[in-house]
Amino acid sequence: MTKNVLITGASRGIGASCAELFAKFGYKVAINYFKSKEKALSLADKIIKNGGLAETFCADISDPNQVDDMYIKIKQKFGNPSVLINNAGISEQKLFSDITLSDWDNMFNVNIRGMFICCKKFLPYMINQKYGRIINISSVWGISGGSCEVHYSSSKAAVIGFSKALAQETALSGVTVNCIAPGVIKTDMMAGYDKQTINILKEAIPCGKIGSADDVAHAALFLASEKSSYITSQVLNVGGGFKI
Asked: Relative to the CA of 132, which of 82, 110, 173, 178 has its CA 20 to 30 Å away?
């Protein structure tokens, strides 16, 4: 089976770490980005310099026409992906009373609509080949809910429900669908956290430290491997014991 992976929102953070790790293990990496072109190009260049294969593909994944175009370009460059990592996502902290309908729609457009569109486009090939791995990035807040993040928590809970349901349909076709629910991970999403807040979070994590994007990437690599062939419809919490 060809080792091709598409990672959405791969220009930075968890997506970038996944791209680098998968490339090290022989995957041809399709790096999807929308706005962060320079970071995506830099990541691809880094992977290539280290002996890997990678290419960038610009697409707003909430737009089916752009995903269609990306599909054609990826197929021409690498062939169809056998692994799809739906990582692209946004977060926002707001009191529920301050969340606007526009905020809500924007959150679901990226975190849910984009995942749906990508699965619709890339899943048929996997089913036809009787092999595939879909890995959706949720969040610990999708499990427990987070104060001041009702729209974000709701969207990430929807990722879990989507994954569990889709897994039931695709299992007999050799396609597994799983979720990763990262806890507190050091990415750009934590850029606004002050030292005091970070220390409070550390105290709440049984492992006593903030996680890294690499921690999530290694979990994704396992779920993409043959070793996980009997694992589907699951949520893997990568959070050092936080909020279990």
From this structure: 110
d(CA 64, CA 121) in angstroms, rounded, equals: 9
Give the angle 107-196-11 at the CA atoms, nearest 5°: 40
Residue 147 class from Cβ within 10 Å (0-12 exposed, 13-18 middle, 19+ buried)? Answer: exposed
- Distance of CA 15 to CAs 138, 171, 233, Å? 13, 25, 21
**DSSP assignment string, 127-190:** HHHT-EEEEEE--HHHHH--TT-HHHHHHHHHHHHHHHHHHHHHGGGTEEEEEEEE-SB-SGGG
pLDDT digits 0-9 by tens, 197-227:
778 888 888 898 899 999 999 999 999 999 9
| Residue 152 designated active-site | yes
What predicted TM-score, i.e. pTM, was given to this entire model?
Answer: 0.95
Name every residue whose Cβ is closer than 8 Å to that of residue 224 and which is 6 or more positions away in sequence: 5, 22, 83, 85, 133, 135
Altogether, the residues listed in the chain come to a count of 244
* Cα dihedral 239/137/57/52 (nearest 10): 50
pLDDT digits 0-9 by tens, 45-54:
999 999 999 9
Per-residue confidence (pLDDT) for residue 191, from 0 to 100: 65
Question: What are 132's strand-pairing partners?
Answer: 175
Cα–Cα distance measured from residue 147 to residue 159, given in angstroms and rounded to the nearest whole number: 19
- The residue whose two tokens read 């946004």 is 90
Percent of the chain with pLDDT over 90: 85
List 33, 71, 131, 152, catalytic entry: 152
